[in-house]
Write a sequence for this structure.
């Protein structure tokens, strides 16, 4: 409805109709029009009521009628809109095209539609659909154009929105990091997003030419086809992982899912296919699974070489075209040793191992030496190991790149090297570095674990051997749960089956009946006080043999804070038996020593006995003579008879003392007056001392407290010291053979006895040996006297020692604690065998 | 009254000193006892003693010492040694040195009498 057209087509011949139209377009005119003819009025009302802006135009496009709605919408009057006036309501951007269309419509004479924005009375533009229809007369001549403008603003908006969504959808689908395709129910490709085209490296047209499965890995094809066929038949969605070929020929894993879209009748309209690249995820999962498998092997105690081999294979399956090796650093750190290299030529590895760990020996040796990664991206250009001709050796085996990384312990010590080789020059990418870090770590765990295991096994073997050798087992006991754990040796000691777990009952059943109460007491006390303890007890075996056991038990707490004991139990049966045998031997020896003393005293004893005997015989003779006299001398006879009895008693006393001193009897404990015991010994040995021209000077202390001990044993010691002193002076003629025997109180509530001679003294080198058994300076002695004496004194908790005098001779002394009532009543062990000196003697007895 | 011969006994053992003089008197001798050689030498019996019964081992001066001392003093007293130490080697040595007899305790009445008779024959 261009102004040109409108102006050119306006003519007087249409004047009357235009008037009508003008009147009709205006409410007041319309009312006048209604008044004139009822039919027209009716028509006007209908036109005004139509839900559209209704207009008519002359065949030349000149608008000659507009309904009331037009005026109401545009706010223009009929007059303002008439002719070309209506154009002022058209959006200026739309007007040129609208006029062009309108012109072509007028020219064509066909009913057409146009769209343009129309200004509302308030200035807002809304889209309208302009529909025009020609009004033809009987001759077929167009007499008028009728038009209706319909508000399509809302529809237009909705459509635009729909178009926007469509575009957005398209861009989203294109942007999706996934392969999205649409296929017809028959399987033909309908659509592929940008990612598909880029991945495959083809246009959609090229892609449509490819066979359906052209980019799927041949190995995965049968499964995919079977699944696709099934889904097409049944309409069920499908879900599969297949490898698809990328533009560069590399296959990557994709997770393919297909779902059908159905119409309202349930027929499949199209298949949506979504492919997600899971290659990295799969790789990561495989690596993770592989790593997990390796760690399981480590935890399961698989052999180190087996684990390292699996590690190499895992890396080789992950990084295409690589070969791996693990070399171990030898114990002294100077050589590389074989670890694992499942895919490398054995000759190649053979020529690497044994090489000295130095910078110029090759990449692995260099890595181990420097404890840092060594990367050789191209061995043809490599010069670092020219000295050892390493590169040509590797190249001869077809290897052109080597990345070697140190395997370090948790403390940073080099354990070995992990190397990756390639047949072509290669530079490591970040993901390779991650992989290397990951697997050198696993290798480090493997090697350290293997080394720790080996050390542990060695240590366990040592422990088991030590336990076996020492007949010592270890155990633990939780006082709350009563759970007991025994080492194998404990089962061995008790003669129980190690496969049957030990319980308190089972343990109790093995106890010697006489020791049950005593062991139970220890156990019950241990439950309460949590103190360390030691216990000696016996166990009875199936064959009723008895074992002597000694347990040392330490209290502790487990992780829950429960009282728990740890201990060691030792089979001391052999020791006990040998102690008993030794005790017997010792007692025999002690007796021999006494008998030896007896030999030395023979003359003295004869003297002591002969003296009273002589008196007896003399007195008896006198007595007889006195009785035979006439008259008999009764008083004299009585006197002599009395003397006879006295001398008989005297002889009897001597015999009693001798029997006490030299009879073989077990040790006993009593309260002993050391002065009295000393006097008795002096009485017995006096004549012997006299015969040796020894001048004895007793200095027995007053108010000497009694000691607790074995009287005879102590007298044996005193006698031994006296005779030794006498012997020591046997060759002395230039000075008095003086012998002082002294008793006195000693510090610390002890009593001391000292025997001082003026004899030859002590040889400096002999002092230490004096108290050893069988050490003697005498040609006729056995050398057990002092050894036994010392063990006797030590069994009395005392001490026996020797010291040179300031002048000639030596002094032997012993000091023993005075007795206490508890010592008297308790089971006081005076067996000289339990003392260190005796142990020396035992040693010598064992190895004379 | 016949003058009885004096027999002196020197012994450190008291029972001998008690018993032996009584027996000697029963034999009909006169008897004196001394507990040591020194005591005997200091007494006034040395010159009158017809026979000396002498213990060999005594503290201080022994029997043989006294024998030598008497020889030195030119007192020729027959000596019968007595001893409680049984040592067969002692007897010949003492006899060689001039002793009349050497008796080992305990000795019999007869042995003592024989020894005394021999001693008195000598004197």
């Amino acid at each position: 409805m261009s102004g040109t057209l409108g102006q050119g087509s306006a003519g007087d011949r249409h004047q009357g109709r235009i008037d009508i139209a003008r009147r009709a377009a205006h409410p007041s005119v319309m009312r006048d029009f209604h008044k004139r003819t009822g039919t027209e009025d009716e028509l006007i009302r209908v036109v005004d009521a139509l839900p559209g802006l209704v207009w008519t135009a002359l065949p030349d496009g000149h608008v000659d009628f507009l309904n009331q709605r037009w005026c109401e919408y545009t706010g223009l009057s009929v007059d303002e809109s008439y002719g070309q006036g209506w154009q002022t309501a058209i959006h200026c951007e739309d007007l040129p095209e609208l006029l062009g269309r309108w012109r072509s419509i007028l020219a064509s004479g066909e009913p057409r539609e146009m769209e343009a924005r129309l200004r509302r009375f308030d200035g807002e533009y809304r889209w309208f659909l302009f529909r025009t229809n020609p009004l033809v007369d009987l001759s077929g001549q167009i007499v008028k154009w009728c038009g209706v403008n319909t508000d399509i603003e809302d529809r237009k908006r909705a459509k635009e929105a729909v178009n926007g969504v469509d575009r957005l959808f398209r861009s989203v689908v294109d942007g999706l990091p996934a392969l999205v395709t649409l296929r017809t129910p028959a399987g033909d490709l309908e659509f592929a997003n940008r990612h598909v085209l880029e991945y495959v490296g083809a246009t959609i047209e090229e892609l449509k030419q490819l066979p359906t499965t052209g980019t799927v890995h041949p190995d995965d094809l049968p499964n995919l086809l079977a699944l696709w066929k099934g889904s097409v038949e049944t309409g069920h969605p499908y879900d599969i992982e297949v490898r698809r070929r990328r533009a560069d020929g590399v296959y990557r894993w994709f997770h393919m899912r297909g779902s059908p879209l159905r119409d309202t009748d349930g027929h499949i309209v199209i298949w949506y296919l979504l492919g997600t690249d899971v290659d990295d995820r799969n790789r990561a999962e495989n690596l993770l699974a592989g790593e997990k498998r390796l760690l399981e092997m480590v935890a399961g105690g698989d052999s180190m070489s087996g684990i390292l081999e699996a590690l190499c294979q895992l890396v080789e399956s992950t990084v295409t075209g690589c070969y791996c090796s693990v070399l171990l650093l030898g114990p002294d750190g100077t050589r590389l040793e074989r670890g694992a290299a499942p895919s490398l030529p054995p000759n190649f590895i053979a020529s690497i191992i044994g090489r000295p760990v130095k910078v110029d020996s090759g990449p692995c040796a260099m890595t181990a030496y420097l404890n840092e990664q060594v990367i050789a991206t191209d061995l043809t250009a490599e010069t670092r190991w020219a000295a050892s001709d390493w590169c040509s050796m590797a190249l001869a085996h077809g290897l052109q790149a080597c990345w070697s990384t140190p395997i370090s312990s948790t403390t940073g010590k080099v354990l070995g090297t992990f190397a990756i080789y390639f047949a072509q020059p290669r530079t490591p990418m970040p993901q390779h570095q991650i992989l290397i870090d990951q697997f050198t770590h696993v290798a480090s765990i493997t090697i350290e674990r293997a080394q720790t295991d080996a050390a542990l096994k060695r240590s366990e073997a040592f422990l088991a051997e030590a336990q076996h050798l020492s007949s010592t087992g270890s155990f633990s006991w939780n006082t709350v749960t009563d759970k007991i754990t025994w080492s194998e040796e404990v089962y061995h000691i008790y003669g129980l089956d190690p496969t049957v777990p030990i319980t308190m009952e089972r343990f109790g059943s093995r106890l010697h009946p006489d020791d049950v109460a005593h062991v139970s007491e220890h156990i019950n006390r241990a439950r309460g006080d949590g103190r360390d303890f030691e216990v000696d007890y016996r166990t009875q075996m199936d064959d009723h043999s008895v074992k002597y056991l000694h347990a040392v038990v330490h209290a502790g707490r487990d992780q829950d804070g429960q009282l728990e004991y740890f201990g060691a139990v030792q089979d001391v049966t052999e020791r006990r038996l040998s102690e008993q045998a030794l005790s017997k031997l010792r007692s025999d020896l002690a007796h021999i020593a006494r008998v030896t003393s007896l030999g030395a005293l023979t003359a003295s004893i004869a003297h002591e006995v002969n003296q009273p005997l002589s008196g007896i015989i003399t007195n008896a003779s006198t007595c007889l003579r006195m009785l035979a006299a006439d008259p008999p001398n009764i008083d004299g006879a009585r006197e002599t008879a009395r003397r006879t009895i006295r001398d008989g008693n005297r002889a009897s006393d001597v015999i009693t003392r001798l029997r006490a001193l030299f009879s073989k009897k077990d040790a006993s404990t009593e309260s002993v007056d050391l002065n009295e015991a000393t006097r008795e010994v002096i009485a017995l040995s006096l004549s012997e001392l006299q015969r040796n021209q020894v001048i004895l000077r007793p200095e027995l202390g007053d108010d000497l407290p009694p000691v607790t001990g074995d009287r005879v044993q102590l007298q044996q010691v005193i006698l031994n010291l006296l005779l030794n002193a006498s012997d020591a002076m046997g060759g002395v003629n230039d000075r008095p053979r003086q012998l002082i025997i002294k008793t006195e109180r000693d510090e610390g509530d002890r009593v001391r006895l000292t025997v001082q001679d003026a004899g030859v003294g002590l040889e400096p080198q002999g002092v230490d040996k004096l108290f050893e058994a069988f050490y003697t300076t005498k040609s006729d002695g056995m050398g057990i006297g002092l050894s036994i004496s010392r063990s006797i004194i030590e069994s009395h908790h005392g001490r026996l020692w020797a010291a040179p005098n300031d002048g000639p001779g030596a002094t032997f002394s012993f000091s023993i604690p005075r007795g206490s009532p508890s010592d008297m009543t308790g089971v006081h062990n005076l067996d000289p065998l339990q003392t260190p000196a005796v142990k020396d003697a035992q040693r010598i007895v064992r190895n004379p | 009254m016949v003058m009885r011969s004096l027999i002196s006994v020197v012994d450190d053992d008291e029972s001998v000193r008690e018993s032996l003089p009584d027996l000697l008197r029963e034999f009909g001798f006169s008897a004196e006892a001394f507990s040591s050689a020194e005591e005997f030498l200091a007494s006034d019996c040395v010159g009158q003693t017809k026979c000396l019964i002498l213990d060999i081992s005594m503290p201080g001066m022994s029997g043989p010492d006294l024998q030598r001392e008497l020889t030195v003093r030119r007192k020729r007293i027959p000596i019968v040694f007595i001893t409680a130490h049984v040592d067969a080697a002692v007897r010949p040595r003492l006899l060689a040195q001039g002793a009349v007899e050497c008796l080992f305790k305990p000795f019999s009445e007869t042995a003592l009498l024989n020894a005394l008779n021999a001693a008195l024959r000598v004197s």
Observations:
- Chain A is about 45% helix and 25% strand.
- The radius of gyration of chain A is 64 Å.
- The interface with chain B takes residues 603, 606-608, 610-619, 621-622, 625-626, 629, 636, 640, 643, 646-647, 650, 687, 690-691 of chain A (CB under 8 Å).
